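Lecture 7, part 2: worked example. A protein chain together with S-adenosyl-L-homocysteine.
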Amino acid sequence: MNLALLSEQDLTGPGSARLTGRRRDHLTTVLKATEGDTLTVGLLNGRIGTGTLLSLTSTAAELSFTLDREPPAALPLSVVLAMPRPKMLRRVLQTLAGLGVKDIWLINAYKVEKSFWQTPWLGDLPLTENLTLGLEQARDTVMPRVHIRKRFKPFVEDELPTLLRARPGLVAHPGTASPCPVHIDHPATLCIGPEGGFIPYEVDMLVSAGCQAVHLGPRILRVETAVPVLVSRLYDGASVR
Ligand code: SAH
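Predicted complex, written out as structure tokens:
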């Protein structure tokens, strides 16, 4: 937690807040914070600043804070991700939030196991919790939006073309002819397959919808590795504020 993300419910007055649960525990166990210490705080979907720890009990941390700067710039990237297995889903959501992706589409694909859609991690609260962990890691405050689409074909035929008009698409698929572009300076939509990969029919449909198929070289990477590799190839840290 490199930033304590404050929501309206945490506020106890103008410029003061109370942290309980995970964030209070993190202050004591990981940060070894004591009264008078300062920490970076941010208001959900708002500005970032500095908090001072006024008191710390076994249940709550009381802070005063000021907010004086904007969160880091968001990436102009939509990520369309074939639904990963639950454990991987949590990690990938945290990673995407940490990298500054604000628009996430979880879609079905032939090689997505049906049972993956049953996971409790897709509930509103667990989704927000995992995205919060990513935001707090990266010192960001702006909550990504997650869209869940359990049917591949209607998504690709009816919704993806509209998305691609604003953000041209790439589908990461090993063995395709073009290498993934590097350091682009425009918005994009990036489609990433399931553990078993997209099947040829799905790649064809994504390409028909307007995506360009790209590869990352001969090594097949796990989804959780492919995501940060792809994102940092497309938008290196220097190109955004
Ligand atoms: N078994 C599959 C690979 C799945 S890897 C196959 O052989 O095709 C999971 C996803 O990560 C892929 O669908 C792709 O979107 C991305 N990925 C992993 N390694 C990649 C690479 N070398 N090039 C392009 N995409 C890759």
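Residues 172-174, 192-193, 195-198, 215-217, 219-221, 223, 226 surround S-adenosyl-L-homocysteine (CB under 6 Å). The mean pLDDT is 95. Keep this in mind for problem set question 3.
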